[in-house]
Design goal:
Two copies of one chain form a homodimer. The first copy, chain A, is mostly helical. Chain A has a single domain (13-145), classed as Winged helix-like DNA-binding domain superfamily/Winged helix DNA-binding domain (Arc Repressor Mutant, subunit A), CATH 1.10.10.10. Chain A has helices at 13-43, 47-58, 64-71, 75-87, 109-118, 121-129, 133-145; strands at residues 62-63, 91-95, 103-107. A three-stranded antiparallel sheet of chain A has the order 1-3-2. In chain A, helix 1 (13-43) runs antiparallel to helix 6 (121-129). Mean pLDDT of chain A is 90; it is low at 1-9. Chains A and B meet through helix 1, helix 2, helix 5, helix 6 and helix 7 of A and helix 1, helix 2, helix 5, helix 6 and helix 7 of B. Chain A binds a DNA duplex through helix 1, helix 2 and helix 4.
Chain lengths: 148, 148
DNA sequence: TGAAAAAAGATCGCGCGCGATGTAATCGAT
DNA sequence: ATCGATTACATCGCGCGCGATCTTTTTTCA
């Protein structure tokens, strides 16, 4: 009765397979953050802060909620992040007089000015990734499929 | 000289484009973690802990360094994570007598037993993702391209 | 109109990721 | 054999993500 190939002895293919997709996504996201870091350090931004600034550079006064919808993050993540951006002088936060529950976040002059420097980032990233553009775009499209 | 369309007025297409890929990756990774959470809660694991267990279920005694290579994480992340797994009774950690610098991590009986429950996770995930299998595999392959 | 429900943020706690640094063990070249 | 370099983990600090909970304001509707 010894040496029977119980489930505990197999590699368990289902676990290995699943492994691949979540692994790949997890690893790719971590690596992306690491790739961005040196460039963003030069701007004084973290990766999530950069993403928030991207949203604000497209449309400047926005509520915390709207930013959260765009970034798929909730206030427990955004509020501290925005406070740090405010402490760095990049954004301004104040309650909406129309509805005191809302907080409106807008770019400061410094925040707007930072965009000029940020424009160099995408090209540097594409260069650092060293992957054909069409490959990157195909990947992006497939990732959107997961975007519940 | 007013109303000249300076860079500060354009949407800045390069920023928008870049936006898409890093956004997509960032969002997909976050959503994946959220999707796994309820299933992993039932196992008493976090998502990174689950990934570490996947590696250990494939090969049990391993050094911290080998786990780090597999997960692309360093000891500053892994050591605390492994200590938590140890506190939960899922793994055992001890110095390698052959080389006292190394720490060997192995599954406990409880850790090995957990694999039986974990085997249900991949199928649940595929179901929860509600995306064709070939789509998921294509995505996985493309993500590997980014794997430095 | 007045009380309950809903909405919008803020706060708290925990577990990552990771850069920077520290410590102990091993290796290497003299 | 010794001493400097390297290796393998550990520790620390900070900034997320997010579930849970709280506060304040607005909305709903009986």
């Amino acid at each position: 009765m010894s040496k029977k190939p119980t489930p505990s002895d197999r590699p368990v293919e289902s676990l290995r397979l699943d492994n691949q997709l979540c692994f790949a996504l997890y690893g790719a996201a971590n690596r992306m953050t690491r790739l961005y870091r040196p460039m963003l350090d030069a701007l004084g931004l973290t990766y999530p802060q950069y993403l928030a600034m991207l949203v604000l550079w497209e449309k400047s006064p926005q509520t915390v909620g709207a930013l959260g919808d765009a970034l798929d993050l909730d206030s427990s993540t955004l509020t501290p992040l925005l406070k740090r951006l405010e402490a760095g002088g990049l954004v301004e936060r104040h309650r909406d007089p129309e509805d005191e529950r809302r907080v409106i976040v807008g770019l400061s002059d410094k925040g707007r000015a930072l965009r000029d420097q940020a424009e160099a980032v995408p090209e540097q990233m594409i260069c650092a990734l060293d992957t054909p553009m069409n490959e990157l775009m195909a990947l992006r499209e497939r990732l959107k499929i997961l975007a519940k």
